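Hello,

I think I submitted the zinc ion job twice by accident. Can you confirm which output corresponds to this input? Input:
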Amino acid sequence: MLPVPKPVEASALEADAAGREMFELIEALYPICRSITGDGVRQTLRLLAERFPLMIHEVPTGTQVLDWTVPKEWNIRDAYVKDSRGNRVVDFRKSNLHVVSYSVPIRRRVPIEELREHLHTLPEHPDWIPYRTSYYTENWGFCLNYTQYLALREKEYDVLIDSSLAEGRLTYGELLLAGETTDEVLISCHVCHPSLCNDNLSGIAVAALLAEHLGRTRRRYSYRFLFVPGTIGALTWLSAHEAELHKIKHGLVLANLGDRGPFTYKKSRRGNAEVDRAMAHVLRHCGEDYHVAEFSPYGYDERQYCSPGFDLPVGCFMRTPEQTRPEYHTSADDLTFIRPERLAASLENCKSLVAIFEQNAAYLNTHPKGEPQLGRRGIYRKLGGPDLETGNLALLWMLSFSDGRSSVLDIAERSGLPFRTVQTAATTLLEHGLLTQLAES
Ligand code: ZN
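Support: Only one job matched these inputs. Its output is below.
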């Protein structure tokens, strides 16, 4: 006899579909040559704007943003190193990582000794192309795998970098999903890396699907999504929105969310913000390995959001942190380095986090003298199923600590139960008049 097929949970199917959708988005964005400015960023944002009403902002070169200045705009059409027979021995068309980002234009024959000063390789990983930038020093260069480098035996080569570095604009994307209140949750990711999947495209894809998910749900908070070039983009946005930063109650930077490593949450500079407690709680119950790290002034744009003059409650959610894997900033961070199911699990944790922001509240037990008789009210029967025991336990925890001082998250933490279970208990008790919600402070 054939075994009876097991029913598959709808949420698992949804996660599979979301994983595939994020992977497909990454495949579409992968070939684009992005940098901190230029048409690659515009093209990336235009693709996102097909999915949701993304505002695309353009800020002119020379604009003062805090202690920085918006740089010249960089664009590139073609680049190569050609040997004497006309073969492109290093070819931008094969990989956009071959050119140092922000390389100034060059077109001339270059002696090998001089060329070598402009070449970057990774001898320890001879098949990988490194990713290098030169944003704030005008220079040119090529990145190539070490095997290619060793094969350069001629005395001189024809070098072309058909780029432009000129007055232009810095481009970033912003999506505001208005909620019932003007209190905001900030979600930010960087959009400035060329063909690198985990570092930049995974964050973009998870942010995009989180935005779509929130777009379909009722929202207490307003959600502001930023798709910005790293550092200079975040600084540009902060500089223009200083007067409104008090609205941001919680925030998260998304990066490196598609690899096979365990989850990492890096706390905000405050260290005890609600986002820090809520994300640690989500990860404790996510069923995968994870690590919660203290804030450090290194990493992604949490550096800017958490700088002491702003000190926003913004943490950073990742799998493998930057620079702890050899694939980081190399051609090995490609489509094989990330997995749809890894992206999907990352997205699920983001959804669980925003569910806490949306639902967390403090309640008051209306029958605090002795335990109210739950059986008489039929509350036990209502729960049923395999979660009966934890469900009943959650009712008791909610009743015991709904003294006006503890939120659902506090009670979930104290009981060791998942937020969702305690929240369900709170809803049941509220429906039976055994709790009242306290006015929000
Ligand atoms: Zn990076």
